[in-house]
Amino acid sequence: MPWLSGAYGNPSGHHSVAAAARTALDQARDVLAGALGTVPGDLVVTSGGTESDNLAVLGRALLAPGAVVVGAVEHHAVLNAGRAASQLTGQPLRTVGADRHGRVDLSELAKALDPTVSLVSVQLVNNELGTVQPFADVAALVRRRAPRAVLHTDAVQAAPWFDVAVLAEGADLVSISAHKFGGPQGAGALAFRRPVELAPLLHGGPQERERRAGTQNVAGAVGMAAALAAVRAAAPREAVRVAALRDRLAAGLLERVPGSVLTVGPGVPTAPGHCHVLIEGVDSEELLFMLDTMGLAASAGAACASGAMEPSHVLRAIGTAPEAARGALRLTLGHTSTDEDVEQALEVVPRAVASLRSVGASPGPLARRSA
Ligand SMILES: Cc1ncc(COP(=O)(O)O)c(C=O)c1O
User: Is 177 in the pocket of ligand 1 (CB under 6 A)?
Assistant: First the structure.
């Protein structure tokens, strides 16, 4: 709060107000760099996950043109940065498929890698399904088959739960976003774990060692560091607690909602908070609208896809039939989730599904709303 209300020094300035802001930023950088397995000078503070991903993918492709390899289930911040990189450099974009649980297909990845590859980007945890990627295998393959490649990982969904410094072992560049772990929106970071030259996306002053021009968001960085320190301290206990809640939610949904299945199969490692189900015979947009009116905030796919009525690219990539994908429901639990939240979800989701099924082919709430 002080950095939002009065302590307005520019960390690049030379007077004592500026020095106070610089000290706060440096302290935040120490915490973030430690958690991401790098040194403070090699951590760029950004405006969030999207910018961090773009800086990694586009920044590398522009500086060292070559093929770009990304997973098909990546967030659009990586996928679309890869597309832009390919358009701007005229180099190929290779998209690597996933298995039916959302794990990157290692044999396809091996085929996509060769000495012309400049950048590979594979996430640590999928944002829709929660699937944890076999990142150590990815890193080993990249080193063996694409020696020129810089390996970037989008750790946005991993940071709330896992020790990213360990899980991202072998990555050169790591993206995080503060609002995924309780920090403020509009703050993120890109950690450099090995000396990598990137073309800056923003041109101007020499901030962030000339990797990102512009006055830093001091309050955002301080909030992000405080939040990351707090989730790291709570992680072992919280991961167990939230996974137990999630398992109860998943089991309860399967039991109380006929025609529902878990999208990710048993035994596949997932982040503790993710619960993704496919529900037969309902339209997820109608379901989401009804759940919202019942006090439950849920999602069908990526947040940015909902509203656009586009089938999720992740479900398409893992081979979910379009008819099944229409009934996708993602319930995500976090550090603030409680037993009562799970009880409420287990009460309202079956009620909403039953109600939508009972109206059958008649216009759903969304159709009525837009009518
Ligand atoms: C895996 C992943 N990458 C990137 C982003 C984008 O982050 P931001 O919203 O901070 O731009 C998100 C946001 O949902 C995400 O889940």
Answer: yes
